[in-house]
Amino acid sequence: MEAGRGQPKAVVKSVQGGGKRAFYLTVAVLLAGGIGTLSYMSTRGTGAGLIDTTIPPIPNQGHAIGSDSAPVEVVEFGDFECGACGSFANLTEPDVRARLALTGKIRFRFMDFPLQGHPNTWPAHLAAWCAGEQGKFWEMHDAIYQNQDRWATEATRKPAKVLGELARQIGVGMEQYQQCMSTEKYRPQILANSQEGARLGVNVTPTFIFGSRRLPGVLPYDEFKARVDTMIAEARAAQGKKQAK
Amino acid sequence: MTRRMLTALVALVGLFVALYLALHKAGVIGTLACGTGGCETVQLSRWATFLGVPVANWGVAYYALVFGLAFAATTERWGNSPGLDFSLWALTGWGVLFSAWLTYLELFVIHAVCRFCVVSAIAAIALFALTHVERRAGAKR
């Protein structure tokens, strides 16, 4: 039943005049306001900034890949249940490791930053540390991110089983792993990493620390590399100044 | 202000909300990162894509279409067009069903609520209510 059929023209015409002008004006105001608001939001700050170096550091220990003698270190604060961290780990990090960390240009450190909104993230962080106890942190890190859809809160309320399967698949000794998981052995280290992140002003994941700069959000490889190049150039310039003195 | 005009205005509000979410998903607004906000959790979930296209983009297309039709219905040329009210009614009815499905996912599957999605759901309900009343009124005329 189509409304409007056989409707007198007067009905349509009745909406003209003052009411129609008010309507067009409201449409124009909404269009201008909407476009203006979206433009403003696209240019405002994203949480990136400089780190306050006056606050004393908290003893912490992440997991690093790359040489101890690398000229600079890049730190990632990550959450295992975070989809954006998963994107970075699966898409960008392989290049970061192969082309920057394993070639001696940087040392790449992963620091735990479990977010409150992710109920399954803690077991994943504990699992990574327990695998790390047996020298398989990065293998577990990769398996956790690659299988996020199997153990994250959207998929299950009991992530321990899937995480245990992943640990077994990468060759972790299960007796030691289970004991480590049941005692939550590395909870203090994970908390310390998280507190260090909070000290540095981290509030979203992933957040990267390039020297004294904090940069939140997923970075494509080219942008990551450009940041590293800047950081190395600054480190060299600082070294040059020291030697000149 | 007629119901058709109100329909167009509500659709325009919904269009900007969907546009914000689409730009956020594309990384143009804000950063692609997880935080304490429910929008990030929802946007980064596997449910944020439908038939290979971000749900927010579907929202932009939906609200743009509703706005276009409702705007046309306010003009003298298209105001008496047969089927326009029915099209709007059917389209917004589908919108309510789709919003209900997304709200269910937020509450019971993703366990996070995005406030912009809530605004969109309210807009979808308002649009259906307006087009339903308009269609009934049209039938009586």
Listing every helix as H and every strand as E from the N terminus to the C terminus, the arrangement of chain B reads HHEEHHH
> Can you tell me the overall shape of chain B?
elongated
> Which sequence of SSEs, written as H and E, runs from N to C of chain A?
HHEEEHEHHHHHHEEH
Q: How many domains make up the coordinates of chain B?
A: 1
Name of the CATH superfamily of the largest domain in chain A? Glutaredoxin
Output mean pLDDT of chain B. Answer: 87
Proportion of helical residues of chain A: 40-55%
- Number of distinct beta strands of chain B: 2
**Helix/strand structural class of chain A:** alpha+beta
Q: Order of strands across the biggest sheet of chain A?
A: 1-6-5-3-4-2
Task: List the quaternary state of the chains.
Answer: heterodimer
Count every helix of chain B, treating DSSP H or I runs of 4 or more residues as helices: 5
Instruction: Give the amount of beta strand of chain B, in percent.
Output: under 5%
CATH architecture of chain B: Up-down Bundle
* CATH 4th-level superfamily of chain B: VKOR domain
The CATH architecture of the largest domain in chain A comes to 3-Layer(aba) Sandwich
Radius of gyration of chain B: 16 Å
CATH class categorisation of chain B: Mainly Alpha
Describe what this molecule looks like in 3D.
The complex is a heterodimer of chains A (245) and B (141). With 245 residues, chain A is of the alpha+beta class. Chain A folds into two domains: 9-33; 63-240, Glutaredoxin. Chain A is 54% helix and 11% strand. Chain A contains ten helices and six strands. Chain A has helices at 9-13, 18-43, 83-101, 121-132, 137-146, 148-151, 160-169, 174-182, 187-199, 221-244, and strands at residues 49-50, 63-65, 72-78, 106-112, 207-210, 213-216. Chain A has a six-stranded mixed beta sheet. In chain A, β5 (207-210) and β6 (213-216) form a beta hairpin. The radius of gyration of chain A is 26 Å and the shape is globular. Residues 1-8 and 10-15 of chain A have low confidence and may be disordered. Chain B has 141 residues and is an all-alpha fold. In chain B, 72% of the residues lie in helices and 3% in strands. Chain B is built from five helices and two strands, in the order ααββααα. A two-stranded antiparallel sheet of chain B has the order 1-2. The longest helix of chain B has 27 residues, at 84-110. Classes of the chains: A alpha+beta (245), B mainly alpha (141). Chains A and B meet through α1, α2 and α3 of A and α1, α2, α4 and α5 of B.
